[in-house]
Specification:
The protein is mainly alpha-helical and about 100 residues long. Helices cover about 80% and strands about 0% of the residues. The protein is built from 4 helices and no strands. It has helices spanning about 5-20, 25-50, 55-80, 85-100. The radius of gyration is 17 Å and the shape is flat. The termini are far apart. The model has no long low-confidence stretch (mean pLDDT about 95).
């Protein structure tokens, strides 16, 4: 699946939430959700590294990472940011910086 297809899928879920009245979120609420998801992700990574005891950690990690991605996409969408474009730009800048530091 291409990035834009993932984004369309994420927007579809946002639309379903909005239609059911369960969530009418903006960037602030999505960011709050992301912060909570990142906290959950940290606990799962700790469990993966044997610092916590959590059952089905691999499945829960997959779920939490996808929650974080969805929230990030929705924040970008709410703020009118072309996340794909900015991600590629940022990765190129990082690659150039790393390459120049290793010369």
């Amino acid at each position: 699946m291409q990035f834009q297809e993932l984004f369309d899928k994420a927007r579809e879920i946002k639309k379903v939430y909005n239609e059911t009245g369960k969530k009418q979120w903006g960037a602030t609420e999505y960011t709050q959700g992301l912060v909570s998801d990142v906290g959950d992700l940290l606990k799962l990574v700790m469990a993966k590294n044997n610092f916590r005891d959590i059952e089905n950690v691999d499945e829960k990690l997959k779920h939490e990472l996808s929650d974080c991605l969805w929230a990030t996409m929705m924040i970008a969408d709410e703020l009118g940011i072309d996340l794909e474009k900015e991600f590629v730009k940022n990765m190129d800048q990082l690659k150039n910086r790393i390459s120049s530091e290793n010369k």
